[in-house]
Amino acid sequence: MPAPLAWPSNWGCEMQWNSSIDPTLAYAQLWRGIEAQACSWHAMHGVRVSPLQCGRAQTLATKPKVQRLVQCRKGRVGEVQPKFLGISLQHARYFKQLRRLQALKQLLASDTGPNAKGTIVATWKAIRHAVGFPGGFGPWWCRPSLRCCQCLAQQLTL
Length: 158
Fold this sequence. Notes:
This protein is an all-alpha fold. The protein folds into 2 domains: 1-60, no CATH class; 89-156, no CATH class. The protein has helices spanning 23-44, 89-109, 116-128, 137-142, 151-156. Helix 2 runs antiparallel to helix 3. The longest helix has 22 residues, at 23-44. The protein is elongated and about 70 Å long. The two termini are 48 Å apart. The relative contact order is 0.09.
């Protein structure tokens, strides 16, 4: 996707539609012409246009996206082991959050020295800003209707 381009407000852009070729190619040619005219207008007014700001409608073929498979990692000794071994991004996010909460519980239980406070703060920040919780983890946790996984609360009491 091209970067934003400041379009001239008062310019006489000549648009030409080539109806003799494939509409996809004609649309690409139309945009190439519009951008070329905008770039030349900017050049006459002393504004440099980056090549990253051009290229609208130049993707002529789709590229299939490879689906990423997400599975939960096996836990360490003494941690909760995943019981669902299927592929689910949301389940993996919930389980990762459970592991973060377990790590926070372990850090709070053991005072390991001067670096412990920084580690606790970093872990808490990771919990609060974790991906997959609409509005952030705090508001998500306070709304039980949005919680799909009650296991988080149950596992913390272990």
